[in-house]
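> call design_seq(struct)
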């Protein structure tokens, strides 16, 4: 007899194919780093893609404010609101719960929701944590250090984000590689160490020369570097899901590989493409410094 209670739309089975995996936690990520296993992260913004990414073996799901561009059609992430981030974080977390998923969920604090004061940051972070995130991410160094310390002291794991920080694209003068000259590299290093000392346990490095991100990774023993356009020397990698699946009409940035058309993996589904991404990050075949980095 057919199950008339089953949803006809976007079916999610009750258990993920990787449900044998223990829930991803900070200690588990530390263990992976200690044994030299790369950490994989993808963005996801809804229940189905989050569940599929989890089933493909992705350890960390970032509910990124890149959803401003890929879901909302905005020109940048600057227009994304906290309420939108709460909605998408809840959707992702529900999707994972439906399949008994085990991925670590990171909620992105959007522009203007942590800039005013540490207290404002705590209020905003609480919204995403109550939506089900395990960690929040915020952009920038220097002034953010005390905010990170304030959140971490209050039990909120924090992922920092340095290099190309899209929320400040206007101040940076465009989407450009950061830390290329000695002064820029020294500032980035100084900010990264301060963020680790403040308690940040993850650090996204975006569009940073691979030599710099590799050196930072070696220096930051307690903070896992996650690269995007930062070469293959980081502790992990992240890509925007739509880009690595080729769901766009333009030219992908240099640091992206389209895993849907990647001939080597021969995948025929989104889940297989995501699994190919996981395998390529783990065996070191993605990213290729000469091709995807500076
Ligand atoms: O918002 C986002 O998706 C991000 C990643 C590009 C790292 O911050």
């Amino acid at each position: 007899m057919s199950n008339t209670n089953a949803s006809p739309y976007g079916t999610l089975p009750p258990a993920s194919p990787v449900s044998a995996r223990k829930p991803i936690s900070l200690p588990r990520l530390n263990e992976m780093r200690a044994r030299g296993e790369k950490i994989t992260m993808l963005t996801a913004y809804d229940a189905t893609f989050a569940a599929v990414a989890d089933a493909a073996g992705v350890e960390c799901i970032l509910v990124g404010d890149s959803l401003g561009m890929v879901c909302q059609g905005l020109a940048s992430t600057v227009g994304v609101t906290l309420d939108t981030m709460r909605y998408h974080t809840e959707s992702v977390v529900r999707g994972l719960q439906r399949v008994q998923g085990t991925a670590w969920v990171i909620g992105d604090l959007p522009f203007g929701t942590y800039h005013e004061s540490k207290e404002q940051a705590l209020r905003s972070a609480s919204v995403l944590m109550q939506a089900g995130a395990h960690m929040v991410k915020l952009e920038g160094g220097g002034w953010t250090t005390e905010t990170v310390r304030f959140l971490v002291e209050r039990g909120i794991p924090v992922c920092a984000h340095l290099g190309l920080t899209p929320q400040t694209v206007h101040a940076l003068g465009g989407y450009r590689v950061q830390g290329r000259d000695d002064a820029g590299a020294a500032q980035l290093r100084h900010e990264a160490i301060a963020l680790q000392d403040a308690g940040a346990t993850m650090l996204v490095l975006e569009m940073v020369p691979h030599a710099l991100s590799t050196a930072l990774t070696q220096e930051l023993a307690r903070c896992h570097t996650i690269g995007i356009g930062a070469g293959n020397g980081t502790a992990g990698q992240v890509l925007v899901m739509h880009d690595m699946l080729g769901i766009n009409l333009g030219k992908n940035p240099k640091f992206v590989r389209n895993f849907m058309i990647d001939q080597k993996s021969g995948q025929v589904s989104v889940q297989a493409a995501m699994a190919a991404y996981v395998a390529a990050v783990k065996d070191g075949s993605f990213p290729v410094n000469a091709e995807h980095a500076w």
